[in-house]
C-alpha cells in the first residue's frame, strides 16, 4: 500500500480534528513512533517461533468478511507451516458480551477484535489487557500504510483516559459506512429512482407506503441496529457537532439535533415506514427479509454487501444517504471496522504482529475486494471494480464520503457506558415509550457524568 495512498479518502476531516488536538503518531504528540513493547526493531520471523498455535477471536461471521478472513488464514498457515490459527468467530453482540472475560482469563487469546472507543478498547487498556503496537507499527510501516486519520481511532492515551491519541492498540482491516441498500425492482415498480436528495428519499418512503410496500426493512432485536439508524438521522441535522461530541469536545446530546433525529425515528415508526414490531425482529432476519423482496430499503453497513448480493444479484443497489441538496455533500455514520489487537499476555506476540501485518497488507486488501468487502486502505483491485456494480457503488460511496468530510464516528464510542445507555433508550424510542426529550436527557446524563470524571482524572494527573 505504501506512501502514495496516504492521501486516500479515509475520514480525512475526522483526522484533521484529531490532529488539531495533538493526536499524532507516538505517545507524546511528537509524531515519532512510540517505543511500544520496546522489543527489537527487526521484522519478526514466525518460522523462528517453532510449532505455534495462534488463537484469534473475531466477529467476521458474515459471508464476505468470513470468506476473506478464512482465505487469509489459510494463506498465512501455508506461508508459515509451523503456525496453526485457532479461530473463534462470534457475532458482534456475542463478542462484546464474552470478550473481556476471555481476555482476562487464564488462557487468553493472542489476537482479538476490539471495538474502538471507551466501552471496549479504552477499558481493556485501562485493565492492562492489550499490548501497545507502536514498535510493530514502525517495523511494518503501518505508520505509512495507514493515514493518521485511521490510526488515531485505535489510539489510547498513556494514562488510559482518552481515545484518539497516545499509544496504538490496534489496526483495522476494513473501512465501512452505513448506507442505503435498495431493491431496484421495487423502486422501479413504484416509479422511483435512487434519490438524489434527502427530501426525495423521504418523499419516496411515503409513496412506497401508500402502495402497500414496506419502505425500510428494520430489525432491532439486537439493539445496535437502531444506533446506526439513529446515527444516520442525527447526521442529517448536525454531523460536525455530533462528531465533536463523540470525541469529547462537543456540546453534548441534549440538543435539537438529538431530539429531531428521535422525532424522525418516532414518526417513521408511526407512519409505517419501518418494520412493525422492529424491537422483536433480529438484524439478520431483517436482512433476509430485505433480500427476499420485503422492503425497498435497508439502512445498514457495507459489511453486509456480500451476503445481500449473493441473494439479490443485480437487483441490489447501494448509496450513501443522499445529501440535503442536489450535488451536496453526503454524511453518514462510519469510519473503519473493529481494531485487530494483540493481548498483553499473548504467548506469541511477534507471530501475532506478523499476522496483523499479513491480514492488512496490500494483498489482503485485494482479497477483501474480491470478497465484496471494503478495505480500510483500498488496493489496486478496488480501482478495477466496475463502477456500475454494487461493489463499485460501495467504493465510490467511500471515496465521496471521505472527500466530503461526511463520515461521523459511531455514537457508542462516546463513553464507557454509552452503548448500553443508547441502545436501551433507542428501543424505547422505537416502541414509542421514550419521547425525544427523554432520550436527549438520558443520553446527556451519561455523557455529562463521564465528562465530569474525565475532568477529575485530568486534574489529578496534572497535580501529580
TrEMBL record:
Signal peptide: 1-21
Keywords: Cell membrane, Lipoprotein, Membrane, Palmitate, Signal
Lineage top rank: taxon: Bacteria
Family matches, as Gene3D superfamilies: Periplasmic binding protein-like II
Protein name: Extracellular solute-binding protein
Matches recorded under InterPro entries: Bact_solute-bd_prot1 (IPR050490), SBP (IPR006059)
Organism ancestry: Bacteria, Bacillati, Actinomycetota, Actinomycetes, Kitasatosporales
Transmembrane region(s): none
PANTHER family for this protein: ARABINOSE-BINDING PROTEIN-RELATED (PTHR43649), POLYGALACTURONAN_RHAMNOGALACTURONAN-BINDING PROTEIN YTCQ (PTHR43649:SF33)
Pfam families cross-referenced by the UniProt entry: SBP_bac_1 (PF01547)
Amino acid at each position: 500500500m505504501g506512501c502514495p495512498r496516504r492521501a486516500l479518502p479515509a475520514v480525512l476531516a475526522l483526522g484533521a480534528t484529531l490532529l488539531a488536538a495533538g493526536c499524532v503518531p507516538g505517545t507524546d504528540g511528537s509524531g515519532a513512533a512510540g517505543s511500544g513493547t520496546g522489543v527489537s526493531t527487526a521484522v519478526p520471523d514466525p518460522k523462528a517461533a517453532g510449532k505455534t498455535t495462534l488463537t484469534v477471536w473475531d466477529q467476521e461471521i458474515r459471508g464476505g468478511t468470513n470468506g476473506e478472513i478464512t482465505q487469509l488464514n489459510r494463506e498465512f498457515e501455508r506461508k508459515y507451516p509451523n503456525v496453526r490459527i485457532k479461530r473463534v468467530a462470534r457475532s458482534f453482540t456475542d463478542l462484546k458480551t464474552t470478550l473481556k472475560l476471555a481476555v482476562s482469563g487464564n488462557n487468553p487469546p493472542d489476537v482479538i477484535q476490539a471495538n474502538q472507543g471507551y466501552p471496549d478498547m479504552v477499558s481493556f487498556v485501562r485493565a492492562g489487557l492489550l499490548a501497545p503496537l507502536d514498535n510493530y507499527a514502525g517495523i511494518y510501516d503501518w505508520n505509512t500504510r495507514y493515514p493518521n486519520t485511521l490510526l488515531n481511532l485505535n489510539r489510547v492515551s498513556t494514562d488510559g483516559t482518552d481515545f484518539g491519541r497516545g499509544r496504538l492498540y490496534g489496526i483495522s482491516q476494513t473501512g465501512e459506512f452505513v448506507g442505503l441498500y435498495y431493491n431496484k425492482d421495487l423502486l422501479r415498480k413504484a416509479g422511483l429512482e435512487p434519490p438524489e436528495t434527502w427530501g426525495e428519499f423521504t418523499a419516496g418512503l411515503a409513496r412506497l407506503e401508500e402502495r402497500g410496500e414496506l419502505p425500510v426493512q428494520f430489525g432491532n432485536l439486537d439493539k445496535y441496529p437502531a444506533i446506526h439508524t439513529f446515527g444516520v438521522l442525527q447526521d442529517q441535522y448536525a454531523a460536525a457537532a455530533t462528531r465533536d461530541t463523540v470525541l469529547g469536545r462537543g456540546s453534548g446530546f441534549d440538543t435539537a439535533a438529538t431530539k429531531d433525529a428521535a422525532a424522525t425515528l418516532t414518526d417513521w415508526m408511526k407512519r409505517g415506514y419501518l418494520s412493525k414490531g422492529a424491537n422483536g425482529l433480529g438484524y439478520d432476519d431483517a436482512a433476509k427479509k430485505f433480500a427476499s423482496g420485503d422492503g425497498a430499503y435497508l439502512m445498514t453497513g457495507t459489511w453486509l454487501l456480500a451476503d445481500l448480493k449473493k441473494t439479490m444479484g443485480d437487483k441490489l443497489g447501494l448509496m450513501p444517504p443522499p445529501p440535503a441538496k442536489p450535488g451536496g455533500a453526503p454524511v453518514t455514520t462510519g469510519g473503519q471496522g473493529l481494531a485487530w489487537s494483540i493481548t498483553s499476555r499473548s504467548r506469541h506476540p511477534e507471530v501475532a504482529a506478523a499476522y496483523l501485518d499479513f491480514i492488512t497488507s496490500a494483498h489482503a486488501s485485494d482479497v477483501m475486494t474480491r470478497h465484496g468487502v471494503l478495505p480500510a486502505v483500498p488496493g489496486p483491485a478496488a480501482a478495477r471494480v466496475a463502477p456500475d456494480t454494487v461493489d463499485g457503488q460501495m467504493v465510490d460511496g467511500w471515496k465521496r464520503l471521505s472527500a466530503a468530510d461526511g463520515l461521523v464516528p459511531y455514537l457508542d464510542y462516546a463513553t464507557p457506558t454509552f452503548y448500553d445507555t443508547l441502545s436501551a433508550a433507542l428501543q424505547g424510542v422505537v416502541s414509542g415509550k421514550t419521547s425525544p426529550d427523554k432520550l436527549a436527557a438520558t443520553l446527556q446524563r451519561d455523557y455529562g457524568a463521564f465528562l465530569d470524571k474525565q475532568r477529575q482524572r485530568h486534574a489529578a494527573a496534572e497535580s501529580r
